TrEMBL record, chain A:
<dbReference type="InterPro" id="IPR008318">
    <property type="entry name" value="UCP030820"/>
</dbReference>
<protein>
    <submittedName>
        <fullName>Uncharacterized conserved protein, DUF934 family</fullName>
    </submittedName>
</protein>
<dbReference type="Pfam" id="PF06073">
    <property type="entry name" value="DUF934"/>
</dbReference>
From TrEMBL, chain B:
<protein>
    <recommendedName>
        <fullName>DUF2849 domain-containing protein</fullName>
    </recommendedName>
</protein>
<dbReference type="Pfam" id="PF11011">
    <property type="entry name" value="DUF2849"/>
</dbReference>
<dbReference type="InterPro" id="IPR021270">
    <property type="entry name" value="DUF2849"/>
</dbReference>
TrEMBL record, chain C:
<dbReference type="Pfam" id="PF03460">
    <property type="entry name" value="NIR_SIR_ferr"/>
</dbReference>
<dbReference type="GO" id="GO:0016491">
    <property type="term" value="F:oxidoreductase activity"/>
</dbReference>
<keyword id="KW-0479">Metal-binding</keyword>
<protein>
    <submittedName>
        <fullName>Sulfite reductase (NADPH) hemoprotein beta-component</fullName>
    </submittedName>
</protein>
<dbReference type="InterPro" id="IPR051329">
    <property type="entry name" value="NIR_SIR_4Fe-4S"/>
</dbReference>
<dbReference type="Pfam" id="PF01077">
    <property type="entry name" value="NIR_SIR"/>
</dbReference>
<keyword id="KW-0408">Iron</keyword>
């Protein structure tokens, strides 16, 4: 069972994440944690200095973090984007599509189930934050 | 009396706790007194039942009769398709459910 | 009709195996019911009163005979020989075994069908006009847009855990046969002054415990930017829709609380950003989809003459057959509302028969309507009598379309674990009370809709006459509503007063319609009379 998943080759960032309020008040932090009701767009002016953004999933039903992740990737953020909290194995493929590249799930994840989930779909219908070509692009070369 | 009901995990069938097992027939249900929650938790953990819950019922000569119409419909079947009831086309079904 | 290509098929096939994997993990105890529930719901599998219920998507209500026969096959093989057509153009099986669910999905996938997103807090089956492609009043066929939406919404990575379920309907006619203003998003395709096609966008309609008619948030959305605009609408909702209270989580509450203008402003702001991301498929993709919906090869020069000598046939013609845009053709409505029947239910034999008729006489097409009936969209007038005879022989020719016995009813407490009262027996008693066709036809168009709980799956708010079943101290009680409409003149019904028992509500309806007969002017529908005279005369007739 796996408690931390990371889909990046660079060295994991060690600095502890600060709250959004703390980040906005102190300009030199390089890691921040966003709660699910916090506005990701507040980070955009200082995106360049961030190496880790952690987004909280207090309940698996709370899907706000999916939008937050895409907003950050759409704004050009390239650092680590971590989903932390009630993250279920069947959600990780969608989270990957929204731009998350690391995961700290509350309950450890079965790596075999995750591998099956991530390899399930060869193709996707929408353009998202993961660079995969949607089927409409494949259909029209 | 209190009786325990739920659905079979695999088939979805409505089932009733008999004291040692699950039956499709509410007539087999036993009074669980105040042990219902504990039995439900153990049986659910063993995956012998899905979504179990305790209900109030009345003991009658024909066996337990659930207190709420919803559970009587669960016990008997849809009132509009008596042919699909657990005792198909039972002439007594109507007065028992409503 | 749309046909899957290799990509569509691979995605649906993969979904079957994904669900098989999820079911196996549940049966093996690797995941709990709490964890499994959202997974099974995302695939339309509920635990209902008697068993698991499976809801199969019929995208925009269109299917062919092969698909229809598969629905019958599944009913026979895995269920109790019947299915229930719903108000969102889906089909429900009531007696499904969890152990069989993946095999059923595999059977569905073999005919390009699925149960994807027929439940859960995601974008649900896209619904549309059952007369699409056949109606004389449409500006274009709305279904290619609905198919584009189906693909866009399938496993949408950002919008699979919305605050609440999300229902979208698309039409392209002035007459609204799909209740678009009572959807989370309703889209009406129309032409602007320059003759271009675009969407009128309604957002924030719905029924349930807080019914609302959707306001227009954009009068004309160019078709090219359609997907990115939907993306913006959903993103604003996903970020700001309420998550603190399940009863306030639908988009209608957000739109209501911040106002349609402010919601529209936020969408425009988001859209200005997302439309730069290249999310919109190229025009070629729309054209590829639209080519599947090209009109069938209608014969020219057919006669519009009909032999009306059989009076029963003539009655059915007048009530259930509608005008087609092509001369010599007609639209046949098959009522699933026989007297003493269950609204929306059809046996597998009936489903097979309708499939046969579609294959032989309707260019292999069928439609499901939000009023829980079936349509043969493209029928030669010369074939109508033969079709009628076969329908008649199989209990499918009840000539009651849009009459008081053409009742929309949810499954209610006979099947549904959320229900507070039974709906079907009330529908049956009303249909029995008004069984005489002369009387029904005298009453004219009268849309009666029954829900067995406040969730309003039976659209009671939108009924000319609506009935809401409630639980009053353990007994079933029925509230009566008047004046709703789900059509282009959408409105919400108002409660008449104290509720009734099952027989009492039937009596109250009889008093209501007798009052209408007394008050109506020539040619005035019940709804129009109600709107003209208001609630009071009816209230007095009902309660004395």
């Amino acid at each position: 069972m796996v408690e931390f998943l990371r889909f990046r080759d660079d060295v994991p960032h060690e600095e502890p994440a600060v709250t959004l309020d703390a980040f906005l008040g102190q300009t030199n932090a390089t890691a921040v944690r966003l709660e699910s009701d916090e506005d990701a767009r507040k980070l955009l002016p200082q995106l360049g200095q961030l190496a880790l953004i952690e987004i909280a999933f207090p309940k698996f039903r709370d899907g706000r973090g999916y939008s937050a992740a895409r907003i950050l990737r759409e704004a050009g953020y390239e650092g680590e984007l971590r989903a932390a909290g009630d993250v279920l194995v069947d959600q990780i493929p969608l989270m990957r599509r929204c731009g998350f590249d690391s995961f700290v799930p509350e309950a450890a994840i079965d790596p075999a189930a995750l591998e099956r989930a991530l390899g399930r779909y060869d193709d996707v219908y929408q353009k998202a934050a993961d660079g995969r070509s949607p089927v409409w692009a494949l259909r029209h070369g | 009396m209190k009786i325990l009901t739920g659905n079979d995990l695999g088939t979805g069938d409505v089932v009733w706790w008999t004291g040692s097992d699950w039956s499709r027939h509410v007539a087999d249900a036993v009074d669980v007194d105040n042990h219902g929650e504990a039995i439900a938790a153990a049986e659910e953990a063993a995956r012998r039942v899905n979504a179990p819950y305790v209900i109030d019922a009345e003991q009658t000569p024909q066996g337990p009769r659930p207190g709420h119409i919803k559970d009587r419909i669960r016990a008997a079947g849809p009132t509009v398709r008596l042919d699909l009831n657990i005792k198909p086309a039972d002439p007594a079904a109507g007065s028992w459910v409503i | 009709m749309y046909k899957y290509d290799q990509y569509d098929q691979a995605i649906v096939d993969a979904r079957v195996e994904e669900f098989r994997d999820q079911v196996q993990r549940r049966l093996a105890g690797e995941i709990s019911e709490d964890q499994f529930k959202p997974l099974r719901l995302m695939n339309g599998l509920y635990l209902q009163l008697h068993a698991y219920m499976l809801r199969v998507a019929i995208p925009y209500g269109t299917l062919d005979s092969r698909q229809m026969r598969m629905l019958a096959h599944i009913a026979r093989k895995y269920d109790k020989d019947y299915g229930h057509f719903t108000t969102r153009q889906n089909l429900q099986y009531n007696w499904i075994k969890l152990e069989d669910a993946a095999d059923i999905l595999a059977d569905l996938a073999s005919v390009e069908m699925h149960a994807i997103q027929t439940s859960g807090n995601c974008i649900r089956n896209i619904s549309s006009d059952q007369f699409a492609g056949a109606a004389a009043d449409e500006v274009t066929d709305p279904r290619p847009w609905a198919e584009l939406l189906r693909q866009w919404s399938t496993f949408h990575p950002e919008f699979s855990y919305l605050p609440r379920k999300f229902k979208i309907a698309v039409i392209a006619a002035e007459e609204d046969r799909a209740a678009v203003k009572l959807h989370d998003i309703g889209l009406q395709i129309h032409r602007n002054d320059a003759g271009e096609l675009g969407f009128r966008v309604f957002v924030g309609g719905g029924m349930g415990r807080t019914p609302m008619v959707a306001p227009v948030i954009r009068e004309f959305l160019p078709t090219a930017d359609f997907v990115s605009y939907m993306e913006a609408c959903l993103r604003v909702y996903n970020r700001y829709g309420r998550r603190d209270n399940i009863y306030k989580a639908r988009i209608k509450i957000l739109v209501h609380e911040i106002g349609a203008e402010e919601y529209a402003r936020q969408v425009e702001e988001e859209w200005a950003h997302v439309k730069t991301l290249g999310l919109d498929p190229p025009a070629g993709e729309f054209e590829r989809i639209a080519a599947h919906f090209a009109p069938p090869a209608f014969e020219g020069g057919l006669s519009d003459d009909l032999d009306r000598t059989d009076p029963d046939f003539a009655l059915w013609l007048d009530q259930n057959v509608k005008a087609h845009k092509q001369p010599g053709y007609a639209i046949v409505n098959i009522s699933l509302k026989p007297v003493s029947g269950i609204p929306g239910d059809a046996s597998s034999a009936q489903i097979d028969l309708m499939a046969d008729l579609a294959e032989r006489y309707s260019f292999d097409e069928l439609r499901v309507t939000h009023a829980q009936n079936i349509v043969l969209p493209h029928v030669k007038k010369a074939d109508l009598y033969t079709i009628w005879q076969q329908l008649e022989a199989n209990g499918l020719a009840t000539p009651n379309l849009d009459l008081i016995s053409d009742i929309i009813a949810c499954p209610g407490l006979d099947y549904c674990s959320l229900a507070n009262a039974r709906s079907i027996p009330v529908a049956q008693k009303i249909a029995d009370r008004f069984a005489g066709l002369d009387r029904q036809r005298d009453l004219g168009e009268l849309k009666l809709k029954i829900s067995g709980c406040i969730n309003a799956c039976g659209h009671h708010h939108a009924g000319h006459i609506g009935i809401l079943g409630v639980d009053r101290k353990g007994t079933e009680n029925y509230q009566l509503l008047l004046g709703g409409s789900g059509a282009e003149d959408a409105s919400l019904g108002r409660i008449t007063g104290p509720g009734f028992d099952e027989d009492g509500v039937v009596d109250a309806i009889e008093r209501t319609v007798e009052k209408y007969r007394e008050l109506r002017t020539e040619g005035e529908r019940f709804l129009d009379t109600y709107r003209r005279v208001g609630m009071d005369p009816f209230k007095e007739a009902i309660y004395g």
